[in-house]
Every structure is written in C-alpha cells, then in structure tokens.
Specification:
Tyrosine-tRNA_ligase_regulator, globular, alpha+beta, OB fold (Dihydrolipoamide Acetyltransferase, E2P), 19 strands, Tyrosine--tRNA ligase, single chain, Rossmann fold, Tyrosyl-Transfer RNA Synthetase, NA-bd_OB-fold
Amino acid sequence: MSKIADFLKAGCEVTILFADLHAYLDNMKAPWELLELRTSYYENVIKAMLESIGVPLEKLKFIKGTDYQLSKEYTLDVYRLSSVVTQHDAKKAGAEVVKQVEHPLLSGLLYPGLQALDEEYLKVDAQFGGVDQRKIFTFAEKYLPALGYSKRVHLMNPMVPGLTGSKMSSSEEESKIDLLDRKEEVKKKLKKAFCEPGNVENNGVLSFIKHVLFPLKSEFVILRDEKWGGNKTYTAYLDLEKDFADEVVHPGDLKNSVEVALNKLLDPIREKFNTPALKKLSSAAYPDPSKQKPVAKGPAKNSEPEEVIPSRLDIRVGKVISVDKHPDADSLYVEKIDVGEAEPRTVVSGLVQFVSKEELQDRLVVVLCNLKPQKMRGIESQGMLLCASIEGVSRKVEPLDPPAGSAPGERVFVKGYEKGQPDDELKPKKKVFEKLQADFKISEECIAQWKQTNFMTKLGEESGIECTFGFPCLSLSISPPSGTTCAESSCTADMHPGEERKPHSCLQPRGIQ
C-alpha cells in the first residue's frame, strides 16, 4: 500500500481491481454472498489508510471484476485464450498464487488467464503486484500478444515476511497485523513475533520497518531506557539493520518501537471505522466464526472426502536447544526445540540408541508441529522429530537435515503444495499423517520425498531436506513391530541372500504421535 501511495504522489492514475471473480475461482476462498460486502469493506479501508498518511485520492479509482468480466466480449476472449494456452503454462503461471492441490480444479487454471486479460480490459499501461505474481506477469507478456493485444509493463515489490518467520498469510492471524487490530492485539502479535537477536535474514519485524515504516516516515526511532543508551533515531534503514545484526539493538526494544510507530499509523483508521455504519460493514464482511451456526455433525450425504495432501502437515525447521535423558525411560530423549515460536517446544524422541546428545545439541532438525500433544512416560511431547532409518543387521537412525542457512520456524513443504495451510491440529482418528507417511521416501540423492517429489524450504528446490547416510540403505515401507510404541517403531525389510542393498527410500519419523 505504501507503494500505491508513491504512485499517487507521483501523479499516476491508479486503478485498484477488486478481483471478486478471481477470489471465487481460487479454490472458492470466499463465498459469493460475502464478496460484495468485502469489496465495500476494502474500499473504505484503503481510502482510510491513504488519507491517514496524507495521500491525494483524486486519481484513485476502484473497479470490481464482475463489472466487466461477465461481459460477452470478455467471455469470448477467455475462450480465445484457452485455445492457445497449454495446461502446463496455466498451471505454472498460477503456482505461487493459486492454492495448490493434488487434483487442481479447472477454475485454478483459468485464474492466470483472467488476470492477463484484465490488463487489456482495464486499459492500463502497467500492472503492479508482489514478486509472487511474476509467473502470471510472464504469462501475460507471452499470451496477450497472441490475441492481438499489446504487452504491458510489470512492476513488482518484495513480499514482507510474516511475523512468525514464514510467509505472511491472510489465514494465519499471528503472521500479520490487520489495519483494524486493537492496540492490545498489536502488542500481543508483536510480542509473539519471531525476532532472533542478530538475525536480519528471517525477521518479519525488521522487514516491516524496511518496507512499510521507513518509506512512510523516512526515519525510525528506537525507544529504550537511558541505561541501555536512550532513544536513537535512524534515517537510513541499513544503519538500523547493521546495529541489529551487531546486537546493538535488542529485539525487545525493536518490537516496542514498532508497536508505538504502528499504532500512530493505525489510530486514524481505527477512528474512521468507529462509526456505526462501518462497524456494521466490518462485522458483515468478516463475521465472527464463533457466532456462526454450528454445522451438523457427520459428513453430508455424497460429500467428497477430505483431501489428504502434504500441505496439511505443519513441518518446520527447528533448532535443538537442549537434550536430556528421560527420567523414566532409558531409550528416550527429552529435547527443547526452537520452532520459531515464543517458547521452545518439548519433544520426546526414541533416539538414545542411535544419536548421541552431542550430535543433537544445537543441531538444525525437521519437526512435525501439528500432531496432538501426547504424554510419553509422564512428559508431554509437542511434536515429532523426523528422521531417516535403515533396517537390517545394523540398524541406523538419523535426523533429517534442513538446508544450510535455514532458520528455526521456516516452513518445510513438498514442492507444489507450498500454498496450502496446515491443519491447526491433526485429528488422530482421521489418520492424515499415517496416510501421507506411507509415501515418505528418501531418494538416491538422499533427499526426503513424498511420492517422488522433494521436501524443501523457501531456500529453493536445490536445497532439499537431506539424509546424510554415507552408505547404501535398505528400502521398504513403515511397519511398526507388534507390541512397540510409536517411538520404538521402525521400517522393516527382508533381504534375500546375495541381494544388493538398494538406495534408502523410507523416511522414518520418530517421537510422539
């Protein structure tokens, strides 16, 4: 929004498209009955925000997608476009924007084409969006000329990381600050934000200062007690970043200063939305889920089963802070693991026979975080440490290694499923993890996979989740021996005499489930 303010201040004519049809096509993220209310809500919010920072609105206009996207001419162009676009190009263009599922709906393949056609029907010279739109922009540059329309300029801005250390998401409340958040909510979210001392690469709080606060005010003030050096004003972001990297600026002071600056920015917007009419609009556009009528228990007749896809797993990079033997179980470790939250999680793992305490201490690991917590010999385990294992004469178990340069809290995902939101908590009766686990494998290159597709992080496909066994491994499916606990279960394998060992293809999660 600060970049839109720059365009308006520079005298550009700016059109903001409320893409209601796109919202419906993107896996039906919003029901039709709410789309009209939400377009009105966002128009009021955007105007209030721009007015609060003194931006002229004379050259700003709003257009709703369905005002022209249902016309005869536009519909005909959709058909024309579909006759020249390949399924491969349509899917690739929407990979970072459209929700990715194993069996995509046709609507998700139409989405990039509609966004390309919008450039022609809005008669714009340039389209502006986040870097996550770049594949759609490339798609538009390729296919609009095929219909006889001119190619447009494309402008992009960086994506601000979420406060939790992962990508900012509208469905993850703790990752973002809403324009109408109360001061208490702003304080709570910033207090829980991931802001590791000296870490400037994966820091949503610092990124917010860089991309939002500095462009609006041209300076930023660190507020702190005199005994810690007193207040300090920065007129260049890089100076602030350097001081934070050198730990001259403490995360607590940084968060408190952002809270003060942010509330000054939000106060005029809160005041405008304090009227009865806008309060009513806010409630109608975004009704409180707790006040919705409860849904009848049990699946509806002929309803489709839930998709069992890897994006439902909340897998994150973790850092082992401490390792101790379980007081009541010789085979179990009790680890404290930083997964990017306010406090480390306690994880109980059956690794005593396989991995030394020294190997685990301060190690970056891969943790499944949305299993239902369960007590293991009296200690509650709040996650599962994921490992690879080898069965046979000499059993080996080793924690998976995230890519070099990873940070605690970064999400681990399967390529093609990075946009899906994990379940808040996996329900044991639905056995989502168990069904997905059956297709967890380790490739010949020692990369963890699901159905031959790599697990990876935001660092990219070239940096997969690795197992570093330095020798060939057995392969077969997970099959817990009779009478063992989940922490003791393992892959089982049978080998015929003289049979060569095959590359390991079984990822063996360990710990609590």
